[in-house]
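We modelled the chain as a single entity of 334 amino acids. Its sequence is:
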Amino acid sequence: MEFGFELALCAHLERAEEWVLARQLGAAVVSPGARVMDVVAIEPGPGFADRARITDRAIPNAAVEADVGVGEARYWRDAFDGHPDRARERVDAAVESGFLARERRGGREYVRQTARYPDDWVGKLVGIENKPDLGSPGELERQLRFDVSLGLFDEVVLATASHVTRAHLNRIPEAVGVWRFDPDSGPTSAHDRDSDADPGGRTVLREPTPLRPDAPGIEVLDERPLRTDVAVVPPDEKAKGRRRVAERAYGKGWRTYDLPDCARCRATADGRPGCGHFDRVVDPAVACGSDCPGFEAGDAPSVDADALRDANTPWERDPAGTARRQSGLGRFLE
């Protein structure tokens, strides 16, 4: 249920907002794996076009923070701190992303940025926690308290399919916005896979209160009876964490699943894995395979996830890039 709800919400937001969306990203700073946000949304900022022009992949944090600029190439070991093997991995990843370019001089390898990194490319970072059934909240309250106290996101929202009562709202931190969303409101089955219509399905029950990413935050590290271990996260570390989350979201997207090799798989118009046997969206990693009663061997539907993302969001597929030789730079590197 949660997988289908999450994909339906992403598809809806992609139609309704000018956002870049991704699913299942680490949302802590001191201990990155301690919190995973279901959906991350990026509202473009003034420098978004400059960021999109560089690469459609994630730019590693280490490359942005490296001691290297645009106008002059530097010896790669001087540009990256740490063990040489780790520094080499970071250089390779940065070059692969298109943010750094290699130059050769006297048999040594030098690197430079292909473009200045636009610090203002993210206008707003929104974290969305999905809990379709509030009758089984699990660790929902703890997770949302974590998000609010850390303040990594500009806004945090809870999305649910449940009827939301006053009692529910009282258990949710006041700063957290609340959406009620009907996952069956959009095109899901083979019968409506060619539909462009967006019939809605999202009701805003409470607007989120803006958080303070520019202020120190408190990250909960461990909770036990009578004791809670926390870390104070300064604004500069939060800024690095925000950039890491935003870059991963930009490079990853939300269509991260593989469609199954089943003749009954019918992809929806927005690229979700629809099942003709059950007439609903399914999680291929869990529900599909030879053990499924509806399984019928066949080719997986052809879905170009990048083309859908490029057509429906500000994300730009395969941009021209900036990894090219700068005019006049060669005479300094011979």
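As a brief sanity check on the tokenised model: The CA atoms of residues 239 and 329 lie 32 Å apart. The longest helix spans residues 235-252.
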